[in-house]
Amino acid sequence: MKILVINPGSTSTKMAVYEDEKPVLLRNITHTAEELAPFDAITEQQDFRRQLVIDELQRSDIPLEFDAVIGRGGLVKPIAGGVYEINQQMIEDTLHGCVMHNHACNLGCLIAHEIAATINSKLSALNSQLSRCRAFIADPGVVDELSPLARISGSPLMPRICIWHALNQRAIARRFARGIGREYEDLNLIICHLGGGISVAAHEHGSAIDANNALDGEGPFSPERAGSLPAADLIRLCYSGKYTENQLLKRIAGQAGLTAHLGTNNMREILQRIKNGDEHAQLLVDAMLYHTAKRIASESAVLCGQIDAILLTGGMAHSDYIVSELRRRIGFLAPVYIFPGENEMEALALNALAVLQGKRQAKIYE
After folding, report:
1. Inter-axis angle of helices 267-275 and 279-302, to 10 degrees?
2. Residue 235's pLDDT band (cuts 50, 70, 90)
3. Exposed, middle or buried by CB within 10 Å (0-12, 13-18, 19+), for 220?
4. Residue 98 pLDDT grade (very low, low, confident, very high; cuts 50, 70, 90)
5. How confident is the model at residue 40 (pLDDT cuts 50, 70, 90)?
6. DSSP count for the chain of H helices, then E strands
7. Alpha carbons 91 and 74: distance in angstroms, whole number
8. I want to staple 163 with a disulfide (CB 3.0 to 4.6 A). Which of 88, 201, 215, 238 is the partner?
9. Long-range contacts: 276-284, Cβ < 8 Å, 24+?
10. In what order do the strands lie in the sheet with 363-364?
11. How many CB atoms lie within 10 A of CB 338?
């Protein structure tokens, strides 16, 4: 099976070609601020980014012939976890229903759908008997399997929602389960993704029954996110007249967390500062890890202390300093295992392959 994987980010488009489980092409196409400046909305970048993917395939002498194209899922309405066949309702919701979350990941399903349609149109014109190319997304950030208790906040105006690293967390959970000869659906896990945003979820027998909104401001602060903030102070700031709505939204996600305090989201640079004796940088990183450990520990109450393992993943899990500090604070809860990096490209490819091989059923987005 030949699979094209597309993963758009804010300043890059990652792409990969897999033949079954084997990657035959991995590319990270970076986009400069000047290249993206002409586009007012992220969805306007669709043609630009799609053409870059096609150009890269041509440069690598890979024909536009795939059994499936799978894109990173966008911030559509809340759905259960799994693989979804891209349909017109998903396209409409991505184009018109994501106005509150204008994120580059929304391009994933749009580009995947368009490339698959191009392949199928060519097959139809040639009267080919080859199987049609299918278009998927898998485990987008809006996967919502919260328990009824987790949805309730202190205000009926604002029920809790989760936007989290569902794709990587679930892929890491399955990898861990395979490694110990168990099934993901048989385990209770707490998983923490340590990236530009930090998401922490309690996985109970294959469902993430509690997770934070790692995009909009809940949980620990991170390199780019503000995390939970004092609500009354935030309201007063909104009415202070000092900031526009867009400026304040960026102070929640993008220009918040360590970026706001230290002027950079580059963890290698920040950790080097600490190594060089920067006590202020160390205070801020230690505070971030303190609040992250608190969030992880709180999920132990969700699982009533019945925890098989705690898994740490994401880019920051490469750091011995970060991992050791978290392990020091949470190691008493359960065994801690480390899975550095994001693994999103492989996770997407394997999700598509599972459907193509009949091992998993693609769900219908409604």
Report:
1. 120
2. very high
3. buried
4. low
5. confident
6. 13, 12
7. 10
8. 215
9. 284/258
10. 22-30, 12-19, 2-8, 68-72, 134-138, 83-85, 363-364
11. 14
Closest to 101 measured CA to CA, from 71, 76, 138 = 76
Residue 72 pLDDT level (bands cut at 50, 70, 90): very high
Judge whether 237 and 229 are in contact, CB under 8 Å: no
Residues 239-248 pLDDT 10s: 999 999 989 9
3-class DSSP state of 287: helix
Query: Residue 298 and residue 310: Cα distance in Å, rounded?
Result: 12
Strand 68-72 and strand 2-8: the pairing is parallel
Tokens 């294959």 belong to residue: 206
CA dist 125 and 127 (Å) reads 5
Average pLDDT of the residues in 272-297: 98
Q: Among all chains, which residue has been given the structure tokens 């009824």? A: 148
What is residue 99's predicted lDDT score, i.e. its pLDDT? 54
Q: What is the mean pLDDT of residues 193-207?
A: 96
CA-based torsion, 323, 12, 245, 199: positive or negative: negative
The one-letter amino acid code at 82 reads: G
Q: What angle do CA 266, 35, 74 make, to 5 degrees?
A: 70
Q: What does the buried/exposed string (b/e) look like for 74-110 if buried means 16 or more CB atoms within 10 Å of the residue's CB? A: bbbeebebbbbbbeeebbebbeebbeebebbbbbbbb
Q: Which residues are within 8 A (CB) of 57 and not within 5 positions of it... i.e. 6 or more apart?
A: 4, 17, 25, 63, 64
Token pair 């898994």 is at which residue?
A: 311
pLDDT at 100: 62
